[in-house]
């Protein structure tokens, strides 16, 4: 009996030890220099999508502690310099970086004179496309909108407008819905009114807003609502192979065998993620698929679990008569891979960024006002 108890204790200790190793914290440190390798003091350095932000010391040094294994994008901002972004991966050791900032070339910018009415119009478009359509515009505001530069190309307004927006400084957004102050490094923004396509590129850092206990309860509720069913939530569940258990139903996108039918359909059988995800090591998974239709329906997902996920074979292609159209209710999302694979960590971070995916449907409507930092845990 003592021998059995000892064996059980040993197994528990071994499991705890393994878990501690996988959660070991590392350090990201480094120096920010100019092209002559002179240290740059007081430059802003942050981990994109997180709450980790700092300033460089007199010798250009910076340090982030408490970093777990995963994918990270490190950005640096200093007035008068270009804004690089470094994609790094932490496996099993700390990392030291040398970030070289290049001076921005001094150019005579084209004078772009716009009327007050056009600026208001452009700004309203930018807010909707950048912050999101579904959020309360009064509770998620840009505090320094005066730094925005607008270039609008009106071919046949308002339908053929092409709007480009830039900023030389960090945008500061206060999101009182979720309780965050966001600093955003806007690299590019373009909206095409004719195609209704919005594309933007940049990096964000999050800071929690001070609030009363009552406000914090509201923020916690709103954060959970923003998280549930989100892309971050889905990628974390894909990492843990708990997609159905987390409330998601994902069906493969497939083409009809009819060569005259160019439409895309969805397989009626939920995808079996053990066939889509390969574990690289204890910290990363490789995610490969052609295309998925994803909907967040916890109750229906529970029924699928009862039916038995083990009976679903992802490679089975049903007869064309059983194919289902893509959900047109606006509550589903379509996820396609731009690259041959996506490397995902436990936080739901993708090595090459969310640009790895082509996103359509519900998730494509989500914007900065809906985002949470990678530190968030429900």
From TrEMBL:
InterPro entries for the chain: CarboxyPept-like_regulatory (IPR008969)
Keyword Protease in annotation: yes
Hydrolase recorded as keyword: yes
GO molecular function, one term: carboxypeptidase activity
One matching Pfam family: CarbopepD_reg_2
Superkingdom of the organism of origin: Bacteria
Signal peptide: 1-22
Entry keyword set: Carboxypeptidase, Hydrolase, Protease, Signal
The protein's name: Carboxypeptidase-like regulatory domain-containing protein
Organism field: Pedobacter frigidisoli
């Amino acid at each position: 009996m003592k021998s059995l108890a000892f064996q059980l204790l040993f197994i528990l200790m071994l499991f705890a030890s393994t878990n501690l190793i996988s959660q070991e914290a590392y350090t990201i440190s480094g120096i920010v220099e100019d092209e002559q390798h002179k240290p740059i003091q007081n430059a802003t350095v942050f981990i994109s999508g997180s709450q980790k932000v700092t300033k460089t010391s007199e010798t250009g040094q910076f340090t982030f502690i408490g970093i777990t294994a995963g994918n990270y994008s490190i950005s640096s901002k200093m007035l008068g310099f270009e804004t690089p972004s470094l994609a790094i991966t932490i496996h099993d050791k700390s990392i030291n970086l040398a970030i070289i900032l290049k001076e921005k070339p001094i150019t005579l910018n084209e004078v772009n004179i716009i009327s007050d009415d056009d600026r208001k119009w452009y700004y309203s478009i930018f807010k909707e496309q950048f912050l999101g359509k579904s959020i309360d515009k009064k509770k998620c505001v840009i505090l320094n909108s005066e730094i925005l530069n607008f270039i609008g190309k009106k071919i046949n307004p308002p339908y053929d407008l092409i709007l480009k927006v830039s900023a030389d400084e960090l945008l500061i957004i206060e999101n009182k819905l979720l309780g965050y102050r966001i600093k955003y490094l806007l690299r590019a923004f373009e909206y095409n009114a004719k195609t209704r396509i919005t594309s933007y590129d940049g990096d964000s850092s999050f800071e929690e807003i001070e609030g009363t206990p009552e406000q914090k309860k509201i923020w916690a509720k709103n954060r959970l609502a923003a998280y549930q069913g989100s892309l971050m939530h889905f990628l974390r569940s894909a990492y843990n192979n708990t997609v159905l258990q987390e409330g998601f139903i994902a069906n493969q996108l497939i083409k009809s065998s009819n060569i005259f039918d160019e439409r895309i359909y969805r397989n009626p059988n939920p995808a079996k993620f053990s066939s889509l995800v390969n574990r690289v090591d204890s910290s990363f998974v490789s995610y490969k698929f052609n295309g998925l239709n994803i909907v967040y329906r916890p109750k229906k997902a529970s029924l699928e679990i009862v039916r038995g996920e083990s009976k679903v074979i992802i490679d089975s292609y049903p007869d064309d008569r059983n194919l289902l159209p893509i959900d047109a209710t606006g509550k589903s999302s379509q996820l396609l891979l731009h690259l041959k694979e996506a490397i995902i960590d436990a936080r739901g971070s993708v090595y090459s960024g969310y640009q790895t995916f082509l996103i359509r449907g519900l998730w494509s409507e989500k914007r900065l006002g809906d985002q949470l930092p990678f530190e968030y845990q429900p």
